[in-house]
Amino acid sequence: xxxxxxxxxxxxxxxxxxxxxxxxxxxxxxxxxxxxxxxxxxxxxxxxxxxxxxxxxxxxxxxxxxxxxxxxxxxxxxxxxxxxxxxxxxxxxxxxxxxxxxxxxxxxxxxxxxxxxxxxxxxxxxxxxxxxxxxxxxxxxxxxxxxxxxxxxxxxxxxxxxxxxxxxxxxxxxxxxxxxxxxxxxxxxxxxxxxxxxxxxxxxxxxxxxxxxxxxxxxxxxxxxxxxxxxxxxxxxxxxxxxxxxxxxxxxxxxxxxxxxxxxxxxxxxxxxxxxxxxxxxxxxxxxxxxxxxxxxxxxxxxxxxxxxxxxxxxxxxxxxxxxxxxxxxxxxxxxxxxxxxxxxxxxxxxxxxxxxxxxxxxxxxxxxxxxxxxxxxxxxxxxxxxxxxxxxxxxxxxxxxxxxxxxxxxxxxxxxxxxxxxxxxxxxxxxxxxxxxxxxxxxxxxxxxxxxxxxxxxxxxxxxxxxxxxxxxxxxxxxxxxxxxxxxxxxxxxxxxxxxxxxxxxxxxxxxxxxxxxxxxxxxxxxxxxxxxxxxxxxxxxxxxxxxxxxxxxxxxxxxxxxxxxxxxxxxxxxxxxxxxxxxxxxxxxxxxxxxxxxxxxxxxxxx
Length: 609
Ligand code: G6P
Hints:
It is a single chain. By secondary structure, this protein is α/β, with parallel strands linked by helices. The strands form five sheets. An eight-stranded antiparallel β-sheet has the order 3-2-4-1-10-9-11-15. A seven-stranded antiparallel β-sheet has the order 5-6-7-8-12-13-14. Strands 19-18-20-21-22 form a five-stranded parallel β-sheet, sandwiched between helices. Helix 4 packs across helix 5, helix 9 packs parallel to helix 14 and helix 9 runs antiparallel to helix 16. The longest helix has 20 residues, at 402-421. The two termini are 36 Å apart. The mean pLDDT is 93. Residues 300-303, 347-349, 352, 355, 398-400, 602, 604-606 line the site of 6-O-phosphono-alpha-D-glucopyranose (G6P). The site of 6-O-phosphono-alpha-D-glucopyranose (G6P) has 16 residues, from helix 10.
């Protein structure tokens, strides 16, 4: 996660750029940089390694006078935090700042090098500058060059471009990472969030997914992903909203669902060395994965379902037996434990009373304790021997969404680390899995595009009294999580089952009024789930199938609706398939008119037994 800012001002902007970057420093501070067009029209950069104060010191010694500029504060992903890798990245024709990951940068870089481009950094970002440069050199206008470049990029990102000789133009783009336009008086702004723009304006336009924007001092022209000009509202952001900003969204839950490409990417770069395609854990664990004969996972609610998914990963990728339990059962069951073993606790808040009590029980029995937590200052984070953080940011909606997928991202990375340490995975397996994990922000972004279809489907679900979710293998925990999401925010009764269990009871409930949501990617057990769907169809049940292109082509079962995701490696499916499942619960609750962010009787953090 990095922070970006752009200002079209009337006075020198360098100090204002730095002021905004200070507000964005929470997003990263490995390096910082600004670029302005100096009064002679020449693009000039100042960049510095480390915290923003280094850039500030640089600007004192070498001031800038330009009245238009862009700035960046970096959290390093591709390439070390050096000055060469600091943004803005520039050619003679363009400068760019970037937040996010360009997933296909390797292919693009090879192509550009073959075409004669010379690279000055190790970053994924520089391919964007070079691609735009390539288009400009071919005679395209800045708008045409950016539009053509965006079509070549995959991944999740926000970008801002500055062009030498164009002293009334900044172009911005967002896909998966946030970007907002600020409206001043004769001045205009672009920034990663409204907080960055707060010193200058409270009039904000939040760009939608896929949008790109041409900003001039007289205003902003927004284009959608198909390049059509679109109207996006200007919102007045109040002072209190700056604290916890809902953006364009009606509810925090919707905002948090849409933040997932960015926060998953941000979390993963703490666990993956994307340049070397290796797992790189943020902390060296005080235990040896290779010596463990068992892993104990304990959690509550949605975090428990993340842990249950991890059981499939640890067993498959690391051949490590996993025992998993709900914390409130674990602590009172007083399970016999072997000292020197490992217990892993999963919690968004890090304060859940039963999870904390289970952690203390394990510590008292001489186990190593590790916690996957979102709140780094929480009790569980403090008391666990090692912390594997999720970097989802504050989650306000009571129903957990982005914290859940970030927990899954961390757990998947840990399972790959364990698999490698235990000699189950080869270096090549690790490379393939790390690449698949690195593709997650882009895949989650694609899943979010299914929202209009999911919203239409939610109208049907809102009429149901009961809903069944089915899944097999690593889709089974997601079936449980889907049912939990639906019941906690829409108050519709829902149950999740392992698809193979259907015939042992739940099938008795199936009739033509019962929606059955089947989560069935085309994996190695797809055919088994198809048989279960046939059993449902034979009894008149209404099937909603969530699958991929191959699954949709081969299922051959009548469905009320089929939600089709892209084909993807099996390991990442539980994260990507979570997105339509979350959106379905969200839109059903919106149709039902419930209090989505604060559903009745629930609490975000349960610090009582
Ligand atoms: C509450 C929340 C759930 C959450 C569970 C565990 O029930 O409403 O969303 O999954 O607690 O919380 P934790 O903070 O430990 O993940």
